[in-house]
């Protein structure tokens, strides 16, 4: 595969447990990539970083597809973490792959990610991760058990201590919607990678290997069993350059040309009849709009005073993907008891929705006017987003209407 020349961020060396804050500078290195981006390099300040992110997310999706093929024939591939969240070799494999590749290209940019290696160590599963990562990495001979463990822990808790000021770092969700991953074809799962520069999200890439091409209402989350229509997609976003998608099936099969499609949120103007997605762990009756609208799951029977509820997708990022692509009008998440919002569940989705014309709102417990996202509020680890509370993601047109409705409703989001 041809090597593309690109400029990468360069920083003074960042060390474990030392504060990290430095300006962005550039140098030239090389990246393996199977496609170009949909906009000119001159228009995108972080073109090279996005190019590298697309490449590694592509390969992470390949890894997921390969692991999933053997998932249900191997007793050792479906696991439980201590918090009872399903996790597979793919979660750790994706984090290891992304960490290895991005550390090679951008050695001084920290990684904030979901997993750490403790579970692998205690269950003697490092060798399994090495096996799935080796043929996806650019330098397979560097994929050793020791390097895999170090790569995973590079994104884990306590890997870096940040200074209070805004910083630059990658945010990775290795597999958002792991429960969907282990269900087979029944629910979507997403690999998500974003770059924060001086406290602002500047680019994002989401890969969804089992995304369904059919945009009809009753197949939005891809629950059909017809695998031939599951093309999958890569979604990319860069600040000021929009949000774009490309068929992942074309990329994985090395077909050409690869045509990018610009994403736009849907044009729904009325909450009644809007397509709404909610967390699978929350019931419609627990959300504030339930006092004003009934939720129907059948698009053929949407009547007056109803909304269309899209279900059966796992994780947060696939819901952002649905809004950014125009398949859903609204994503509502009620305030959780823990009041904690993890960055990897939302960062890449936020920029993809914003660049597609939508809005994202994180509601504080007592303030429905909202406030801007503060990525530096978690001053030392950058693993939490504030304000913490409910989440409202819309196509923009419905945003103020829904906030007004919820504000006047006695329910709490």
Helix and strand topology:
Elements: E1 3-10, E2 25-32, H1 47-71, E3 78-80, E4 86-88, H2 89-105, E5 111-113, H3 118-122, H4 126-134, H5 145-154, E6 169-176, H6 178-182, E7 190-197, E8 200-208, E9 233-238, E10 242-247, H7 248-252, E11 261-262, E12 275-277, E13 294-296, E14 306-310, H8 317-324, E15 330-333, E16 341-342, H9 347-355, E17 359-363, E18 384-385, E19 390-394, H10 399-407
Parallel strand pairs: 5-6, 12-14, 12-15, 13-14
Antiparallel strand pairs: 1-2, 3-4, 6-7, 7-8, 8-9, 9-10, 10-11, 15-19, 16-18, 17-19
How are the strands of the largest sheet arranged? 5-6-7-8-9-10-11
Enter the CATH topology name of the largest domain.
Fructose-1,6-Bisphosphatase, Chain A, domain 1
Q: Report the average pLDDT across residues.
A: 80
What are the segments in which pLDDT stays under 50 over at least 5 consecutive residues?
A: 1-34, 215-228, 364-368
N-to-C terminal Cα separation, in Å? 49 Å
Number of strands: 19
The level-1 CATH class of the largest domain? Alpha Beta
H/E element sequence: EEHEEHEHHHEHEEEEHEEEEHEEHEEEH
What name goes with the CATH superfamily of the largest domain?
Answer: Fructose-1,6-Bisphosphatase, subunit A, domain 1
Q: What share of residues is helical?
A: 10-25%
Biggest pleated-sheet summary: 7 strands, mixed
State the domain count.
2
Tally of helical segments = 10
């Amino acid at each position: 595969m041809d090597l593309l020349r690109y400029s990468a961020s360069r920083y003074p060396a960042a060390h474990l447990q030392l504060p990290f804050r430095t300006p962005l500078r550039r140098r030239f290195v090389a990246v393996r990539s199977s496609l170009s981006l949909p906009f000119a390099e001159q228009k995108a300040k972080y073109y090279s970083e996005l190019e590298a992110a697309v490449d590694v997310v592509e390969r992470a999706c390949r890894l997921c597809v390969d692991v999933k093929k053997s998932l249900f024939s191997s007793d050792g591939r479906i696991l439980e973490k201590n918090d009872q969240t399903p996790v597979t070799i793919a979660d750790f494999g994706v984090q290891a792959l992304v960490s290895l590749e991005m550390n090679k290209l951008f050695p001084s940019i920290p990684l904030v990610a979901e997993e750490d290696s403790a579970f692998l160590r205690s269950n003697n599963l490092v060798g399994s991760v090495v096996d799935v990562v080796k043929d996806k990495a650019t330098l397979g001979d560097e994929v050793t058990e020791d390097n895999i463990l170090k790569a995973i822990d590079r994104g884990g808790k306590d890997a870096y201590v940040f200074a209070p000021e805004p910083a630059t770092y990658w945010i990775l969700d290795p597999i958002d919607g792991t429960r969907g991953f282990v269900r087979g074809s029944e629910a979507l799962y997403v690999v998500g990678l974003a770059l924060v520069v001086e406290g602002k999200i500047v680019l994002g890439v989401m890969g969804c290997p089992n995304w369904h091409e059919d945009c009809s209402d009753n197949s939005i989350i891809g629950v059909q069993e017809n695998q031939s229509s599951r093309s999958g997609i890569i979604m990319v976003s860069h600040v000021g350059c929009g949000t774009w998608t490309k068929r992942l099936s074309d990329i994985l099969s090395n077909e050409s040309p690869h045509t990018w499609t610009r994403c736009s949120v849907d044009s729904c103007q009325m909450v009644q009849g809007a397509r709404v997605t909610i967390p699978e762990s929350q019931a419609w009756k627990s959300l504030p709009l339930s006092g004003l609208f009934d939720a129907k799951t059948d698009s053929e029977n949407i009547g007056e005073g109803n909304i269309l509820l899209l279900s059966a997708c796992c994780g947060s990022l696939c819901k952002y993907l649905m809004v950014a692509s125009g398949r859903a009008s609204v994503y509502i998440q009620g305030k959780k008891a823990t009041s904690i919002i993890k960055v990897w569940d939302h960062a890449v989705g936020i920029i993809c929705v914003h660049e597609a014309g939508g809005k994202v709102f994180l509601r504080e417990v007592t303030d429905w006017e909202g406030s801007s996202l503060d990525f530096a509020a978690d001053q030392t680890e950058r693993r939490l987003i504030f304000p913490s509370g409910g989440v409202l993601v819309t196509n923009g047109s419905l945003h103020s209407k829904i906030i007004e409705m919820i504000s006047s409703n006695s329910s709490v989001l």
